[in-house]
Amino acid sequence: MNRKHQTSSVKHQAPESGRPEFSAHHSALRAGVGRLAVAGLLLVLLLGLQGTMSCAGKANTARQDDELSQLTPVEMNGKWGYIDATGKLVIKPQFGYTGGFSEGLAAVQVGDMDTGKFGYIDKTGKFVIKPRFRSGDGFVEGLAAVQVGTLEAPGKYGFIDKTGKLVIQPQFDYVSFFHESLAAVQVGDARTGKWGFIDRTGKFVIQPRFDRTCEFSGGLVRVQVGDSLNSIDHAGILMGPWVALPERSPEGLVATPSCGAPVTWGYLDRTGRVAIKYQYNNADDFSEGLAAVQETVNYNWGFIDKAGRYVIKPEFGAAWGFSGGRAAVRIGDYDTGRWGYIDKAGKFLIKPKFGYARSLVGERAAVRDTLTGRWGFIDRTGEYVIRPQFANANDFSFGRAGTQDTLSGKWGFIDMTGRFVIQPQYDTVGAFSPDVHYGFARVEVRDTEGVMCGYIDTTGQVVRGLHRY
């Protein structure tokens, strides 16, 4: 999924875990990016290696700036520049690779992929930090991870501030972004190294002792007990033993650690103390003060607070985290159960009536109609704003939602009115994500010779040509 330190979803399923099916890439894909040249090296970026676990519910990558002012990388004749939301060229193509803007700056590479150096530009294209790093990530909480060294002799990772000063000297083998003033770092190689957490001075707050770890969310971090590896999908469903999956796999599977038998999940606080003991069959990150957890007897899902107390009893066959004060939950089993939306008291705001439901994103939620089996979109009241008409549908992102045409079976993208703005033509699509693809969406086309993948922008223009893998 990425290169140096992998962040992958930490989910594990037991029978009836409540993380149902996904065809195509679920748009709530929360795969993280860690330490690679932030400029992207997209193919490498998507390779699955083990490392830290990205915990669903929080994106682990640098948050790009507001969508309306977002500058998106674009490739022209082998060089990269930036366009604005209207498609106007703002920074002419001149770089070997480019990353998304984060906190007003973007990492760019001058030179080729093998020998080029990374620096940071502002939104006028002016270098604020001159190119001198082997790789560089986006700024988060005022700091950016950089790597020194060369291709032949790659060096360690440290962190710089926005003046380019190394405030944490390169000393770590792999690192994550700062989140809530702490960053996960690894000491040792990708296979045997241990992970801990440092503060903004580079001092270890939690000593390296974990084989896998998440990033902090709401003051807590989920950790794993056990040492087996399994493959899970974007929703956390256990799909079988771990295997190395190239480029995140066209089926949306990501190689991630899962717990050994018996499965137990718990939460650490920011000091490394066990804040909520290991007792759950599965656990989600905290979102809006609550976390969805799965108990180990009947495999039902409920919601706990940060003290580990059940606020909403475990009585659901499946559950998504809270978003906008609502959480999608399922009553009944996988085959015949119905989905609705509850508030933080566990009261149904939208009665269970859907065959499947995704989380509310903004003012829209993708749902599968029980009668027709088609997908449409509802508003916060549960009323359809885009009638059920699609074979499948993902969440909205950047004003676009990937949807599957009923007749052709191909995927395209609709706007907020339900109109196709990118016609159905792909066999698999991802979401327009500032976190992983810098505002692009990954698309795939299958033919008799295999699979070709590439990236498109929100207008449907191919920004990374289709290639076979």
The shape, in one word, is: globular
Quote the average pLDDT. 75
Task: Describe the sheet with the most strands.
Answer: 7 strands, antiparallel
Computed over alpha carbons, the radius of gyration is: 21 Å
| Strand-residue proportion | over 45%
Q: Please state how the strands of the largest beta sheet are arranged side by side.
A: 28-29-30-31-32-33-34
Percentage of helical residues? under 10%
Structural class: mainly beta
Oligomeric form of this entry? single chain
Secondary structure tally, helices: 1
Low-confidence stretches: 1-68, 224-261
Strand segment tally: 42
**Intertermini distance:** 15 Å
Could you walk me through the main structural features you see in this protein, from its secondary elements to its overall organization?
This protein has 469 residues and is mainly beta. Among the domains are: 217 residues, no CATH class; 86 residues. Helices cover 1% and strands 46% of the residues. It contains one helix and 42 strands. The strands form eleven sheets. It has a seven-stranded antiparallel β-sheet, with no helix packed on it. Strands 6-7-8-9 form a four-stranded antiparallel β-sheet, with no helix packed on it. It has a four-stranded antiparallel β-sheet with strand order 10-11-12-13, with no helix packed on it. Strand 12 and strand 13 form a beta hairpin. The radius of gyration is 21 Å and the shape is globular. The N terminus is likely disordered.
